[in-house]
Amino acid sequence: MSRTALPLHPTVSGAPSPGELARAGSDAGSPMTDGFGRTIRYLRISVTDKCNLRCVYCMPEEGLPWLRRDELLSYEEIAEIVRTMAPMGLERVRLTGGEPLVRRDLHRLVEMIDRVPGIRDISLSTNAVLLADHAESLREAGVDRVNISLDSLREDRVDAIARRPGSFSKIMAGLDAAERVGFAPLKLNVVLMAGQNDDEVEDFAAITRERPWHVRFIEVMPTGANLGVSAEATLSCDEALARIRRIGELEPAEGPTGNGPARYYRFPGAPGSIGVITPMSHNFCDRCNRMRLTADGQLRPCLFGDLQTDLRTPLRAGESIVPFIRHTLRVKPERHWLEQGSDAGSGGLQALSQTGG
Ligand code: SAM
Ligand code: SF4
After folding, report:
1. Which of 2, 6, 50, 114 has its CB 3.0 to 4.6 Å from that of 348, i.e. a possible disulfide?
2. Quick one: what percent of the chain has pLDDT higher than 70?
3. Which atom of ligand 1 lies nearest, measured to the CA of 57?
């Protein structure tokens, strides 16, 4: 299969039906429940497709064809989408990317979202390289909590996986800053890779005995850009849990705030917990509560697949986006069909940085 032939973003999922267009007014206040009875309260917003790292499982070394400035939604446009979705039941927003902290003045967007009635939780997914510089302003603006990606506890490995020397020390400074300004709960995301970091599973788990952190292991998902990695380097979360159980008994635990697809465990009495996110080995789509907004204004009902609805065009034309949101809900698929070693189920996606992961 030719990877270069794939579009940066897959094609549009279609347009609202005449009925959806006619009901724009009355639909504006009703809950976002999809055809499978799942109610959407959570929106992951990608504020940029760019990144200061090149994690081996995410982006190719040379980067990707970036979006142009005029293709990106402005902060005002993003806030308008959140304002439209809040009366439809949106409660929680996560800012992600690419790397969200490479977009200038992110705290301005946070302030705008924080003012939207009904939004009760604003979180951030970051690689933390720039977090030390921004933690305070983001906290003041209204970010409640952060998820930090950290795939190893060893400097040489972090720098190698991120393909950027010097990353580790900046990430550590970012972690310190996150604790200092009081982002809580603090979640660490660890992408599991056999032969690259799987011998650190126990060390990561041990952190939760000392600190109130939530360490989450994630199975690598195949995209066009990482097929080489995912085909040979997969490790299931079941295997990770089996290794952790060799160093101590685990009990099922309540998830921290923002409980999504992860299942949680803890060592009895430990302040932190261990989460597993198993897109490959145990499908969790029946619990899906989210949609995704790409940096160029495509509303995606699923992380994978080729469904997305263009919100940017109607927004810039001054039209109601409610029918476009309804339409996206109507086509939300029951589940994804990812398969390890193949990008067939990824809908032409090169990297999770394109949809906000
Ligand atoms: N740059 C930020 C970061 O790294 O946290 C936010 C965007 S990143 C795409 C969001 C999450 O997706 C990160 O935790 C990252 O580790 C994870 N991720 C990226 N590509 C992945 C893949 N192919 N499989 C599993 N997780 C992936
Ligand atoms: Fe960047 Fe995050 Fe992708 Fe790593 S996982 S390349 S930090 S977007």
Report:
1. 6
2. 89
3. 23
